[in-house]
Amino acid sequence: MKQQLDILNIWYSHLPSRDRNMLITALVLVFITLLYLLVWEPVHQGRDLQQQQFKSQQEIYTWMQSAANEAKSLKSSGIRKTSSNQPITLILETSATSSGLKQHINKIESSGKSGAQVKIDSASFDQLLVWLNTLEQQHGVTVTTANIERNDQPGSISARLSFEKI
User: Fold this and answer.
1) What pLDDT sits at residue 140?
2) Helix spans in the chain (H)
């Protein structure tokens, strides 16, 4: 290594002064360019990326807060119980008939004073969601457990649901 440095030193000392100044200037420019490309630019790109991610997370947080407030206001508006004195199995059966799910229900079993279990085969998933929403909003019946499986036919599901009357 020392020999190589000595060779470079001798070569440099034999250069004319104008060439030595150009070489130093070129080395300084290469050093500044490398410093910019290897240190400065990656740091700034990382900072910009972090700022974008932070802004995105703030927007998501703001949206979630507004959604939570909306959910609280909807919940506080109350659930309208139009059939509070009917047995839950009767509520499930009549609402399933009106929503078009009756033909897909295999079994409705009562479980306790205010609970029931329902087994549904080959029903439309969208239709099931509408039915569940209707049960909660109009009858005060909520799902306590749900086991929903996709069938081979698109949009078709089989489900085992447990309900409870509020």
Assistant:
1) 87
2) 2-14, 17-35, 41-76, 88-99, 125-139
